Amino acid sequence: MISRDDVESLDPIEKMYFKRILSFIKNTLKIDVTQYKESYIIRRIRVRMKATKCQSFKEYYEYLKTHKEEHEELANTLTVNVTEFWRDITVYKEIMKIIDNWVADRSIRKLRIWSAGCSSGEEPYGVAIILNEAIEKHKRKLLLASIIGTDIDKEVLNKARIGIYHIKQLKNLPPHIIEKYFIKLNEEEYQIKQIIKKYVKFQLHDLIKDPPLKNMDMILCRNVIIYFDKKIQEEIFLKFYEALNPGGFLVLGKTEILHGEAKKLFKTYNARERIYQKPKEE
């Protein structure tokens, strides 16, 4: 099996079958991967090749045609996000400070937060926990706070709405937070409580094709845009700028940085944690 992750390294036959797999993904699985980096697509396909013991793209293409159960496996692998609560705790400490300052400010009556590419809900629920802690601390029960989690995967959004997680996904949360906000279902599974669910709504949304949500105070889009090519990334950054209220924050993943026109538009709030701010109106 070829190990390099670029199309040009493939021999002509493998290149032809790679393109056939791409066509299959688009036409049969109905997933548009044209905006993804080819190296990412190759890596994700190879995950399934290894699982099915296929040694070449040709072999895997033939496997796809004869094994319908593999269609869903490939689709899930292409759109997979490894998620856990409060992943990268240093970022979440900064988010805690921002949210605490907002909630403490009694002139603020409403907060809207967007978790873009939210996968199975750990990020929006994790932010909702921070929000609820701040609301209790500052006695702001009348504050209108909402979080919208969006993704392109219907199945993963349904999973998010149910809100059941493996204990390993809770490893960053302090024990008292787990006890307060989760119902223990068994030794391995926990379900998020309604006190947190009430803040979060989930909806289907394509970052590339759909217009941005509006009037947001914070957007979290962590470890999502890295899979898109540079031109698409720039377009998404501009959509996020449009979506944010003046003074609002954009939180990216640790390996993601602003570029293009958005780099000039946003202020850097915390370079290390990849937090940017839309300038406040003069």
From TrEMBL:
Protein's UniProt name: protein-glutamate O-methyltransferase
EC number from the UniProt entry: 2.1.1.80
Biological processes, Gene Ontology terms: methylation
Catalytic activity entry: L-glutamyl-[protein] + S-adenosyl-L-methionine = [protein]-L-glutamate 5-O-methyl ester + S-adenosyl-L-homocysteine
GO molecular function annotation: protein-glutamate O-methyltransferase activity
Organism: Methanocaldococcus villosus KIN24-T80
PANTHER family for this protein: CHEMOTAXIS PROTEIN METHYLTRANSFERASE, CHEMOTAXIS PROTEIN METHYLTRANSFERASE 2
Cleaved signal peptide residues: none
Domain CheR-type methyltransferase per the UniProt entry, residue ranges: 6-279
A Pfam family: CheR_N
